[in-house]
Amino acid sequence: MSRDVLSDFERGDESCIMRFEDGASFRVSYLVIRSNCQCAKCKPRQQNEQRKIELEEEIARLMLEKPRVSPVGRYGIQLEWPTGCSSGIHSFSHLREICEEHGQNLE
Ligand SMILES: [Zn+2]
């Protein structure tokens, strides 16, 4: 069973629960996912601490909304937020890294 395959994405109001094929599950806030978006628009804004703080503050001011989730091939998901960035494709391995680094382990 792979640690880099997302098997479930459960949307809460401010955070989601991600479950992976290897049985691990994590709760991660949308703020964390959004501030680590890898799209062409958001990624350059994570290059240094100052820009990252600005990005986080900007996202924190947006309304908290559940994203629309659609699968991208067998390797990722696209999350569409009604406000702010909606083009980010999040690979499973990237999501797993976010989970390990910032998530709350639910095991
Ligand atoms: Zn983005």
Order of helices and strands: EEEHHEEEHE
C-alpha-based Rg, rounded: 13 Å
Q: What is the averaged pLDDT score?
A: 93
Q: Uncertain runs with pLDDT below 50, 5 residues or more? A: none
Strand and helix layout:
Layout: E1 6-11, E2 15-20, E3 25-29, H1 30-35, H2 49-61, E4 68-72, E5 76-80, E6 89-91, H3 92-102, E7 104-105
Antiparallel strand pairs: 1-2, 2-3, 3-7, 4-5, 5-6
Bound molecules: zinc ion.
Describe this structure in words.
By secondary structure, the chain is an alpha+beta fold. It has a single domain, classed as NE0471 N-terminal domain-like (2-Layer Sandwich). Helix content is 28%, strand content 30%. It has helices spanning 30-35, 49-61, 92-102; strands at 6-11, 15-20, 25-29, 68-72, 76-80, 89-91, 104-105. Strands 1-2-3-7 form a 4-stranded antiparallel sheet. Strands 4-5-6 form a 3-stranded antiparallel sheet. It is globular, with a radius of gyration of 13 Å. The relative contact order is 0.23. The structure holds zinc ion (ZN).
